């Protein structure tokens, strides 16, 4: 009985704090994305062939933890199968944040473009399925500055 | 040392390919950070300590790759890739590899 109470408390806490943190993060993501729209990042492997460029590797990464509520909901979902929306938003946030950090680094060196952007995602909480997921998103690419 | 994940340098010519160079680094998180992350796991959000840890680890791996490239006389590493794998619950391995080349007149 006592254990059930703990779970209920954690789920409620996770729900409120997690939701607040997430909406705050999304707001800041949208704001910064608009700000960095002038610096396009592309997945293309062929850089423009006109003229000389300065070429530097840039990268950005972020580690995000899931909150208790989301882990709980995902656990329930695992019984019935189907789309786990709570994890989708977590991965979305992580990838967008990583890309933004990469772009910020590129902006600091006055780059014009970022080419050959690659993403990688890793689960760093280990292989045990009991632990709530902690994921790392890493984005890297080549920043080009026209000489 | 020029590092890039494109397959060539814009406006420069690769004169010699020297083969694959690589670097890796395994880091564990210490207990204090682990406890903090346990708390964070309740509420969600970014784990800044881990972000920094992995960043440092990645820098070290890159450093090792550069050392190796310098040892065989390269002046650039092209087509660089990163990969991360979690080995156990407490440690992550960062691996970085690329092609060491010699390019003419590196600025």
Give me a quick take on this structure.
The complex is a heterodimer of chains A (147) and B (107). Chain A is of the alpha+beta class and 147 residues long.
What does this structure look like?
Chain A has 147 residues and is an alpha+beta fold. Chain A has one domain (2-146): Hypothetical protein apc22750. Chain B (Translation Initiation Factor IF3, 2-Layer Sandwich), CATH 3.30.110. Chain A contains three helices and three strands. In chain A, strands 1-3-2 form a three-stranded antiparallel sheet. In chain A, helix 1 packs across helix 2 and helix 1 packs parallel to helix 3 (85-108). The model of chain A has no long low-confidence stretch (mean pLDDT 86). With 107 residues, chain B is an alpha+beta fold. Chain B has one domain: Hypothetical protein apc22750. Chain B (Translation Initiation Factor IF3, 2-Layer Sandwich), CATH 3.30.110. Chain B has helices at residues 31-43, 48-71; strands at residues 2-3, 14-28, 44-46, 76-88, 91-103. Chain B has a four-stranded mixed sheet. In chain B, strand 4 and strand 5 form a beta hairpin. The longest helix of chain B is centred in the middle third of the chain and has 24 residues, at 48-71. Chain B is elongated, with a radius of gyration of 17 Å. The A-B interface holds A 10, 13-14, 17-18, 21-22, 25, 45, 47-49, 51-57, 59, 61-68, 70-71, 90, 97, 115-116, 118, 120, 122-128, 131-132, 134, 136, 138, 140-142, 144 and B 2-7, 9-11, 37, 40-48, 50-51, 54-55, 58, 80-86, 88-90, 92, 107.
